[in-house]
């Protein structure tokens, strides 16, 4: 197991461009697993996981009441249970989950509750179970657009430090750190505005002048088929100690 002090918040080398689905499907024993997803958002990864493989049971938590209500309208995922709740107080029994997933959601947990959330993850995991924590790295063109109205540099650094401290304390063991660039595309600014600026869990109210600046910065990357960014990502693949 690599020591916690060796963990890196960002890669120091070139990394591949790939879909995150390819990573978690290859790294995690999802078939037959009891899976907990924390901060499922619009349930995009939830759907991909639940409809692939076999015998996958997913408990998908979301803290945003508006998005949770929308998720509860889903009727074609019989192996998924949508529940309102956050990582700091997981509504699941001790050692009842094989795999915990967090896709870009740890940095949305209040900083003062991040350590508690990681202990909660360890509590609900069975010994030897996996915690897969995927976090965006604050770099690249996509973040140059985002930081104009939503600078997440502090909370992303805090999320990394919380994981590093949990590993140092033996709450969870570091199995592997994985770095990659995720393709992020939008056909136009209106779609970016709907999916990012107007997201229900953090609705941003941009003054007209700032809105114009964000639109101009976004459209600097506009091509014939829209905008495609490469968002740098880090995955901390962790395990609950077996003993």
Provide the fold topology.
Blueprint: H1 20-27, E1 34-38, H2 44-50, E2 57-62, H3 65-71, E3 80-84, E4 97-103, H4 114-124, E5 125-136, H5 141-146, H6 153-168, E6 173-186, H7 189-197, H8 208-219, E7 227-239
Parallel strand pairs: 1-2, 1-4, 2-3, 4-5
Antiparallel strand pairs: 5-7, 6-7
Helix pairs in contact: 4-6
CATH topology (level 3) name: Rossmann fold
Mean pLDDT: 94
Q: What percentage of the residues does DSSP assign to strands (E)?
A: 25-35%
Largest sheet: 7 strands, mixed
Query: Counting H and I runs of at least 4 residues, what is the number of helices?
Result: 8
Question: What structural class do the secondary elements suggest?
Answer: alpha/beta
Q: How would you write the strand order of the largest sheet?
A: 3-2-1-4-5-7-6
**Uncertain residue ranges:** none
Pattern of helices and strands: HEHEHEEHEHHEHHE
**Mind telling me the C-alpha Rg?**
18 Å
Write down how many β-strands occur, each being a DSSP E stretch of 2 or more residues.
Answer: 7
Give the name of the CATH superfamily: Vaccinia Virus protein VP39
The total domain count is: 1
Characteristic key phrases:
single chain, Rossmann fold, 8 helices
Describe this structure in words.
- It is a single chain.
- The chain is 31% helix and 26% strand.
- It has a 7-stranded mixed sheet, with helices on both faces.
- The relative contact order is 0.18.
- It has helices at 20-27, 44-50, 65-71, 114-124, 141-146, 153-168, 189-197, 208-219; strands at 34-38, 57-62, 80-84, 97-103, 125-136, 173-186, 227-239.
- The protein has 243 residues and is α/β, with parallel strands linked by helices.
- Helix 4 (114-124) crosses helix 6 (153-168).
- The protein is globular and about 55 Å long.
